[in-house]
Design a protein that fits this description.
This protein is mostly beta strands. It has 3 helices and 25 strands. The strands form 7 sheets. Strands 13, 14, 15, 16 and 20 form a 5-stranded mixed beta sheet that branches. A 5-stranded mixed beta sheet has the order 18-17-19-22-23, with no helix packed on it. A 4-stranded antiparallel beta sheet has the order 3-4-5-6, with no helix packed on it. This is Cyclopropane-fatty-acyl-phospholipid synthase.
Length: 352
């Protein structure tokens, strides 16, 4: 072991004077966002080092946000809060790190990691459709089938890939949304919605469920290593009087968009060292090995949307669930717990 030379003035070295490369080595061993924040809070020198090194570090593990202002920094089960109360009452999430809040006729976005706020134009000033569009040209449309079950004609835009916006419909159609600029006003507007893949919903959807049960389906659109994935989540439910109650049995299927042949293709692995974090407001594929974790895992939530409850639950509380594609097993390895009534729980992905 090399001999350590004491400072010339005889005073012990300060922890604040650790070399920047050593600080980088320490931060690389801290995948949790909360741990990196604690490192930066030690002293101004460490805070400056963390800020300078952030672009070269692997992304921190996601956080789970709840609309009461509580956050969970994976893998910890202890709740935490960002300074201030600006994260209470959000109604959605966007782009992985922004929370959406309503305000009068419009809304604004808050990035709790950067402390940034962006106010969006009032909805009264946003053109949802061109003046010459047909009456059925709408952003969000819901219909009821003869048996009373609802479906959404097309869902919110979830991904931007190669400069294009894609949407996934409840009938599993993949749509591409082209946006252009109005030459007279300069405002952006949707100029075309085209079908890229015609969906082929699973006609054997009910076959996998036990007798005397019913099923519900949830779809997610995720970009992973340049590919578009549709994740089909099947929830096994039972009827209790007139109430649909979710059971603990669920199943996942992953399909990749073959844009060249306009079809969905079943895949049995996420490939390329990937795992998924699924949520109605925000989903993302991330590298598993950078966190010392196994690939082909799907982290998901009991994500019931506000005013759109599809089923009830036996238990009052819920948590993060993990589906392993290799053995089709579901587990709850993380001990964070919150109430089902806490709608709109969402994943947050800190930017470097």
């Amino acid at each position: 072991m090399a001999e350590v030379t004491p400072p010339a003035d005889g005073q012990p070295a300060s922890w604040s004077e650790i070399p920047r490369d050593l600080a980088g080595m320490v931060l690389c061993l801290l995948p949790a966002y909360a741990d990196r924040a604690r490192f930066a809070a030690v002293c101004p020198q460490w805070r400056a080092a963390a800020r300078l090194l952030a672009p070269s570090l692997p992304p921190a593990l996601p956080l789970l946000a709840l609309p009461n202002g509580i956050f969970y920094s994976l893998p910890y089960s202890k709740p935490c809060r960002f300074p201030g109360s600006g994260c209470v009452g959000y109604k959605g999430a966007a782009f992985g790190s922004w929370l959406v809040f309503p305000r009068d006729e419009g809304c604004f976005l808050v990035d709790p990691f950067a402390g940034a706020t962006v106010t969006l134009p009032a909805l009264s000033s946003v053109r949802l459709r061109p003046p010459n569009a047909a009456d059925n040209y709408v952003k969000y449309q819901e219909r009821a089938t003869p048996n009373g079950r609802h479906y959404v004609t097309w869902l919110d835009i979830r991904d931007s890939k190669h400069g294009k916006l894609y949407a996934l419909a409840d009938d599993e159609n993949l749509l591409v949304v082209d946006i252009s600029q109005d030459q007279s006003t300069g405002d952006p507007h949707v100029c075309r919605i085209g079908q890229v893949i015609k969906g082929d919903p699973d006609h054997l959807f009910d076959a996998w469920m036990p007798d005397d049960t019913t099923g519900r389906k949830k779809l997610y659109l995720v970009e992973s290593c340049g590919a578009l994935l549709m994740v089909r989540r099947k929830v096994c439910c039972r009827m209790v009087d007139d109430t649909v109650v979710a059971g603990r049995i669920c199943e996942f299927e992953v399909l990749e968009a073959d844009l060249e042949h306009s079809q969905w293709v079943d895949v049995t692995t996420l490939g390329d060292d990937q795992m998924l974090f699924l949520g109605r407001p925000c989903s993302r594929a991330v590298s598993a090995s950078q966190y010392g974790m196994s690939n082909d895992q799907i982290f998901f939530l009991d994500d019931v949307m506000e005013n759109a409850e599809e089923y009830a639950f036996d238990e009052e509380n819920t948590s993060v669930n993990v589906y392993d594609m290799r053995n089709d097993e579901v587990s709850r390895p993380l001990q964070m717990v919150w109430k089902h009534e806490m709608f709109l729980a969402t994943w947050m992905f800190p930017r470097s």
